[in-house]
Amino acid sequence: xxxxxxxxxxxxxxxxxxxxxxxxxxxxxxxxxxAINVLIFGLYAVGFNLLFGYTGLLSFGHAAFLGVGxxxxxxxxxxxxxxxWMAVAxxxxxxxxxAFIMGLLAIxxxxxxxxxxxxxxxxxxxxxxxxxxxxxxxxxLRGVNVVEATLLGIKLDLLNPLQKYYFIFFFxxxxxxVLSRILASPFGGVVEAIRENEARARACGFDIxxxxxxxxxxxxxxxxxxxxxNAIHLSSVPIETxxxxxxxxxxxxxxxxxxxxxxxxxxxxALFLLIQDIASVYTENWQLYVGAIFVMFxxxxxxxxxxxxxxxxxxxx
Amino acid sequence: MHRCRQVxxxxxxxxxxxxxxxxxxxxxxxxLGAIYVLLAVGLSLIFxxxxxVNFAHGAFYMLGAYAGLVALQFTGSFWAAMLFAPVxxxxxxxxxxxxxIRPLYGRGIDYPLLLTFGLAYMMVEGVRIVFGKxxxxxxxxxxxxxxxSLGFTDFPTYRLFVIxxxxxxxxxxxxxxxxTSFGLIVRxxxxxxxxxxxxxxxxxxxxxxxxxxxxxxxxxxxxxxxPLQGVSPEMGTSVLTVAFVVTVVGGMGSLMGAVVAGxxxxxxxxMAVLFFPxxxxxSMFVIMASVLLIRPQGLFGRSGxxx
Lengths: 317, 307
Known about the structure:
The structure holds two protein chains of two kinds.
Chain A: H1 3-12, H2 14-24, H3 32-55, H4 63-80, H5 84-106, H6 113-131, E1 148-151, E2 154-157, H7 161-184, H8 186-196, H9 198-203, H10 208-234, H11 244-257, H12 264-282, H13 286-300, H14 304-315
Antiparallel strand pairs in A: 1-2
Helix pairs in contact in A: 2-7, 3-7, 3-10, 3-11, 3-12, 4-5, 4-6, 4-10, 5-6, 5-10, 7-10, 8-10, 11-12, 11-14, 12-13
Chain B: H1 19-50, H2 57-75, H3 78-101, H4 110-131, E1 147-149, E2 154-156, H5 157-179, H6 181-191, H7 193-198, H8 203-229, H9 235-250, H10 255-275, H11 280-294
Antiparallel strand pairs in B: 1-2
């Protein structure tokens, strides 16, 4: 079987491939915490990719959604003793609400303003949460303890890293099924039409503003879920979750992996965490190398690792 | 990791609200706003000409402050620092434009933005390696320390100096853009670079100079801000947000907009410190949100420019 056929097979069964891959993923990496991070940051990048890669809107404020998701779930669990499933559900809903308000403002601007406005609004969210008594301010939120969870009748011990991995895998898998449905729906087509040519999509009679807002909110919902899962994973929420550097990181993940591709965000997350893991052993200034690699990608491989690979394979006969 | 910008409250909180106090806080706001204006003017100039949103603008501001620090340590003169920092940073900016940003023209508006974002990442980490992670104090020269009487109240001399420098620089910039032949090319290039090129003008050289001038102005803002808050590798991050808010409020590509919006944001922020200290940090976002709702193109922006 040629590479091309293999690629077609993979893209044809993208959900199955993702689920199968992540089901055996923990066996491929040295420790389970890396596997969990790839899942969570991959999901974060998946949400971002829906907006940047598919809709063509570059947001520099997605840390707000990761953070709001994490803080909503964290505060409910740590301070109100809510069950984990309720915390996760409320976290996604709160994120959707915040994204709706941010989206209403950001969509009003066109083109290049979008990145600036989303950055500014996420900074606003940072200051608000920072000053909220419930958030723990600079020290972050502690005590987000979920010891065990029952999923589909199976009792999982979340203190065991492998069982925690499969707990998170369940939600990420679910999200990937939903994403695949969204992309295959007519809405997914309109979204890509906006990316390719906004004026033409408008001329075809599509409501551009509403579609963009919906894409923005959906994208945020994935990121909010990632945030809530991360809060449960870490048993805490550091204030850095909301920081500008988190917004920047997801842009890097997405570009490294390949924007506008289904698998790209996970490839990017795995690559980023790998580089960070290796570089931080040799130097504490690993950000310099990450920055340099990112600049190289912008200049020479704007389609990212997965995107470039797919393009190469498709081109050969 | 996140250092919040400090807005000084010169008066104590429990002091009575007097006319003097209000005037003092108003001037503090103008001085703060003056630095915002410089940042926004550079950002706006670069965008107006090159249609590049410079995400490294805060990093150039930070680099300028460190360049000033180096000059101060070598020469002992604040004036030398004020001269050296913009020139050195501007030249570095031109190198970045020529070798990193230029290859990306014509490839979509997001790519230069992404590149400057990565560049900022590297600049901050580079400065951390050379100068360390801790903040460094930066003293104003003795002539500018202390207070000057304004007739009705005393005001810190250094802040008055900042306002004066910014006003002079803006006047110079305005004269350059409106009265010189180079300014004519800049204005024409902002409107239609293709026609300018057809007329036989090397637009890429103009872009190079504009990027150098824009980053140089950001560096000057960094030096001017240094005695007020010290220098640290992260000082550019929070300031980048402010510069964005000011350009969105004023309207991108408009110098007048940058001036009015910068002063507005500065004054509102320092007034909020007086009346609602909890809301001071959020005040500028409230301004931005209101402008977006009422006039999405910004106070002085032309609609459609940003399409």
